[in-house]
Target: Flagellar P-ring protein
Amino acid sequence: MTMMRCLSLLLLLLTSLPLHAERLKDLATIQGVRSNQLLGYGLVVGLDGTGDQTTQTPFTVQSIINMMQSMGITLPIGTNLQLKNVAAVMVTSSLPAFAQPGQQLDITVSSMGNAKSLRGGTLLMTPLKGADGQVYAMAQGNLLVGGVGAAASGSSTQINHLSVGRVSGGATVERALPSTLLHSDTINLELIESSFSTAGLVVEGINRQFGPGTATAQDGRVIRVRAPADSGARVAFLGRLESLNVQPGASSAKVILNARTGSVVMNQNVTLEDCAVSHGNLSVVINTAPVISQPGAFSRGDTVSTSISQIEINKEPGKVMLLEGGASLADVLKALNAIGASPQDLLAILQAMKAAGSLRAELEII
Model:
């Protein structure tokens, strides 16, 4: 079974799945409850001759001089430092919501000079600052550099990216971020994806669970919720709120094409209108015609109106697929894979359908 045929079967399975209720914590976030980025500049020492070349990175030399002066050591003017075991680095981390002093954070250390490797180095004490310029954490520790290991056969060593390392628990929080979550009688929920239908369903579910008037939608993303004033009761309320099951509204039709790998991802709302596409020696014709079924005489039945979608491909003469209801993109994929169309053919045909207005979906190429 080819890869494209497996992809087609997977898409057919996904498009047939019904919508299920999701936890509110998976659909929305609480405004003000988020992480904050931290950044710092520091030095890594103890390298085995793989540090910065000081003739090309003067900031490394200047950093060493400033550090030694802060420790009471004054270097003679004109001293030429050859520091092959030192590297200037940028240290990044993320300060989670409600972090308190003493809590440890993981940090990422990245070379900013021309050091060949940070493996085996030790990060010296580095203050980590937020966007407001305040110091929120202090970082220090021994670096763990990945990307070095033996090959599968055991006969050779594969060395990858060595200019970035991590230190687990390498930073300690020194300052807590102020929280405004308990300073108001309301909280704001922010949907991860803007949707007026989902916002309405969330408001309906919250009011049904906690009483009328508890939640009101401000727009397609923000939902205002009345919460208890007491901190303990509010935490318990937010826990129940996050666990509330809500069925989201149907998402907009979307098709994502990966032009490099030929991958196609779509959701279940993608449909097609009648069209005819010619691509090389391959053509696809989609034609939908109404079919009316009338009951027999004196049968007292009702007239039933349906539609039959016909997908015809000309690479195999006479091969036609008849499908009840409107044609979907999954049907087209199945028909194209049946004749062995390549991923490049598939991408070109979908682009042509979108340009002709037949593909009822947003087309995104990555």
Summary: Residues 183-246 form one domain.
